[in-house]
Write a structure and sequence with these properties.
Layout: H1 4-31, H2 36-47, E1 57-58, E2 61-62, H3 67-86, E3 90-92, H4 96-124, H5 140-166, E4 171-174, H6 179-197, H7 201-230, H8 244-269
Helix pairs in contact: 1-8, 2-7, 2-8, 3-5, 3-6, 3-7, 4-5, 5-6, 5-7, 7-8
């Protein structure tokens, strides 16, 4: 039987986590623009430049995240769901036959991002900087594809790290076992990318929300892991429902981070729109 002091502390900590979560959520809801999709925009506002020319649109509505970030968080969500289905509680990091293709995805992300950034400088500050060389003219197709590839890399690291931290009993096999599983994951992600590129409203609306939700999911996982480590609760759980406190705390910290960045960016720019060019 647990000592009364430990029981009271556990009850008090749970109540504090719930109360803090409610206050942070209400505060963020009240200080961001009204509207369902506007809340998704506020999430993107904290992690993305949201430059209109580098984003997909549904009519006059700009998606919450730019093309690159949309791909990255969509890819991360696809990778996490894929591994949750095929790998369950596997906690091993990918083998080298998987790491090498993932490293190439990181390289593609870096090359396209650098090339796109140099092109942005050239467009924003003409004159002497107009002669900055570019490998190719950047576009939203490359941004989406390389972003989703980077999202897969993030999921390939986050999923086993989460399993390593949470479960009492875990499978030490790699979550992504080989080229076959990676190829299937890449094919699924490419299919979703092609759906995005149709720019059909029935496709873009749900995928835009999934991408924005991906920001919250990743922050929840990261801060949830840190919460378990901080309170020395690693590898103590058998069911996902048992770690609701750590996940709620992680979500709360994630929303608080988003709120603080939102407030700082709005204070600096005075607008909820993308970073102005020129």
């Amino acid at each position: 039987m647990q000592p009364p002091t430990i029981t009271r502390f556990a009850v008090a900590s749970k109540a504090l986590v719930i109360l803090t979560a409610v206050l942070v959520f209400i505060g963020w809801m009240m200080t961001t623009p009204p509207g369902f999709f506007e809340k998704a925009d506020a999430i993107g506002y904290a992690v993305c430049h949201r430059i209109p020319e580098r984003s997909f649109h549904i009519g006059d509505y700009q998606l919450p995240l730019c093309a690159r970030c949309s791909g990255m968080y969509l890819g991360a969500m696809i990778g996490l769901v894929f591994q949750a289905i095929i790998s369950k509680r596997r906690s091993g990091m990918p083998p080298w036959r998987v790491i090498i293709p993932l490293a190439l995805l990181v390289l593609a992300f870096g090359v396209d991002g650098s090339n796109s950034y140099l092109y942005l400088i050239k467009e924003t500050y003409p004159g002497a900087l107009a002669n900055i060389p570019n490998l190719y003219t950047p576009n939203n197709v490359f941004r989406l594809l390389t972003g989703s590839g980077m999202g897969l890399v993030i999921s390939a690291a986050m999923f086993p790290a989460f399993n390593q931290t949470v479960w009492r009993v875990q499978d030490p096999k790699p979550a992504l076992t080989g080229i076959k599983s990676l190829s299937l994951l890449l094919a699924i992600t490419l299919l979703f990318d092609l759906l995005v590129l149709t720019e059909n409203a029935f496709v873009l609306y749900p995928l835009a929300l999934i991408s924005a939700a991906g920001v919250l999911v990743l922050l929840t996982m990261i801060y949830g892991i840190l919460w378990l480590i901080l309170f020395r609760q690693e590898n103590m759980f058998d069911w996902l429902s048992q770690i609701w406190q750590a996940l709620l705390a992680g979500l709360t910290i994630g929303i608080l981070q988003i709120a603080l960045i939102d407030a700082l960016r709005f204070w600096l720019t005075g607008t909820w729109g993308g970073f102005p060019l020129g």
